[in-house]
Amino acid sequence: MEMFVLSFTIFILALFVGVELINKVPPTLHTPLMSGTNAISGVVIVGAIISAGSTDLSPNVAGALGFVAVTLASINIVAGFLVTDRMLNMFKRKG
Amino acid sequence: MFALINFSYLAAAVCFILGIKGMTKPSTAVRGNQLAAVGMLIAVIAALLHKEIINYATIIAGMLLGAAIGVWLARRTAMTQMPELVASLNGVGGAASVTVATSTWLHALNTDNLGSTGWTVAILVSIVIGAVTLSGSLVAVLKLHGTIGDSGRNRAWQAVALLTLIAVVGGSALFATGTGVQPLVLAALAGLCLLLGIGLVQPIGGADMPVVVALLNAYSGLAGAATGFVLDNQGLIITGSLVGASGLILTAVMCKAMNRSLPNVLFGGAFGQSGSGAKAQDEGDFYAGKVKYATADDLALLLDSARKVVMVPGYGLAVAQAQHAVKELASQLESRGASVSYAIHPVAGRMPGHMNVLLAEAEIPYDQLKDMDAINPELPQADVVIVLGANDVVNPAAAEEPSSPIYGMPILNVHKAKTVVVVKRSLSPGFAGIPNSLFIKENSLMLKGDAKDVLQATTRAIKDL
Q1: Residue B373, Cβ neighbours under 10 Å: how many?
Q2: Which of B137, B199, B303, B367 could serve as a FRET partner for B99 with CA atoms 20 to 30 Å apart?
Q3: What topology is assigned to B276-464 in CATH?
Q4: What is the spatial distance between Cα B344 and Cα A76, in angstroms, rounded to a whole number?
Q5: What is the pTM for the complete model shown?
């Protein structure tokens, strides 16, 4: 239970950090911000990797779901970062 | 080893925070994004070092498959389709949270190692938010794409949402208390949440999709944070709440720009439903004889003597694929010594900041892109304002007529400029379904036609002057 309270504290504090930080992002960059945070939310791949890797090769539902999770999270990460990079490079060049 | 892995997650979270900090300026944004990607690499490597992992084949296969799909998506998506891509990625993120939580729970069940109540609740939250995000995003994508229109049976869908919500609460209680055949309860719960997501998004109008996409962005983050609780992984929790905060702020920005509250957007708006039929009849009277029409040559003459020109792009501009035509005209004007800037209303595109991306794609320098608060004080000094495919966001009724349904909505005060030229196909109303009093103002001219054709004709006329 103590772990939960600690985690929850971190969750709330991080929300405040997020609000402070994101309020400073100019409206011009809101679309790349969204695709960038999309990529970042792909960090659930950590859980996916542990799920997919902790079953041995005998197939079961949990392992299969783990595989699906790794695939989905990878899509999020790769597509998110690449498309954000593509957009931001358009903002970088001047006139 | 355990401590090292956890420190790596913290390092990844710090990279994400610094990465987003980089996004506060266009000049540092590319580096910021790269830094965030480095953070992700650290997190992935740390995850691979967990001692529970005995089988790398599945992981590598999943990563390769996902990466290939990701590269394909990122390469082939046109900038106009960015809202669809972001909405799809929200859905994918939600689905990832659902599968991670389900898989983790099944593992725990198989090894008879189920966690505390807090852990069970975290599993539930991951699955509920994740599944709602998945199906809600799917509906949002289809609506953005125009595959499904706005349904006439909003009440029915809202009833579906309400009923499934009750069922989800009941199912969650069953699951948390451990009654019934648990895997079946969980599967049924996931199914109900998918239905809930559809029921929640389906009644929302296509015009409100930007808000929905931003909100689902927040959900996908919160689902990730819940997964962090499941895995007792603080790095994940920090990241999830960052993304959640980002989505919530963008949702608030969009709501403010449309002068609507979030509940109003989500559960039935003032627009659309309130007898637009009656209004259509007076529209002829409203405009009758009061609209002054101009030609591309007139516009060229006006622009020839203008020192300060402001373009107001709306989504109609992107639909007409006219961004490059705007840029061409702007370059022509600049070479004649005029200053050109672009006034961008927060809801100009189909998602927050979308119009900026579309203009940046046409190589328009970002320092000429001005947001509403920055450009409004400058507009009275503008010699010519050209409104391109924007409508409701330049309707002075929002500022002047308390009886108007859009009264109070923040607008671009283009009517205060010396001359306003509205380039538009017809006098048809915008999303709000009301006539625009800008079109009958003393200082406004109407130029009927496709934005791209008009701009190109104007550019040619200026060159010939």
Answers
A1: 10
A2: B199
A3: Rossmann fold (3.40.50)
A4: 29
A5: 0.89
